[in-house]
Amino acid sequence: MYKEYTINISLWYLVKLLFVGIRDFFKLIAYICFILLPDLLVNWWVEGAILSEYIEDYKADIKDAHLRRRWGTFVVGISENEIFTNEGDFQIHDITSYHPSLGNSEPYVILTNGSRIVIETSWLKKTERLKVDTALQKLINGKRT
Question: Most buried pick, 48, 56, 58, 97, via CB within 10 A?
Fold first, then answer.
């Protein structure tokens, strides 16, 4: 059974979304100015690469880095085999531990490769946060038995 948790639109949500959008916009501008353009100019100057061929190579990189993110009200999706977050989709068997939220912290999972994936449940209502916590604890603990 697949369950998605979404946000009810409120003023706080709109303010938070505005700040996230501004942050992501500046990340994209910084990526273009400090990574893409210098690399493009160096390759054009040294190798004489044609601009259209070079941009085709970078389309996938730009899409993966900035445009793959789910926009809108999506926070987290939980199925029997996967967890879907804004940071990516993760198989349950790749998760070693789940750490629920404590106080003002966000819950997170630790993957087998050691990376930490934060689940941004602060966007949700308290009752929905508790549902996400219990569902993930059951799912992760059920995997170990």
Answer: 58
Q: pTM for this one?
A: 0.50
pLDDT one-digit tens code per residue, 55-96 = 666 665 555 444 444 455 667 888 888 888 877 788 888 989
Closest CA to 109 of 131, 128, 130, 94: 94
DSSP for 47-97?
Answer: H---HHHHHHHHHHHHIIIII-SPPSSEEEEE-SSEEEETTEEEEGGGEEE
Span 9-63, pLDDT tens digits: 677 777 887 888 898 888 888 887 887 778 777 766 666 656 666 666 666 555 5
> What are the structural domains of the chain?
9-67 (no CATH), 74-144 (2.30.29.30)
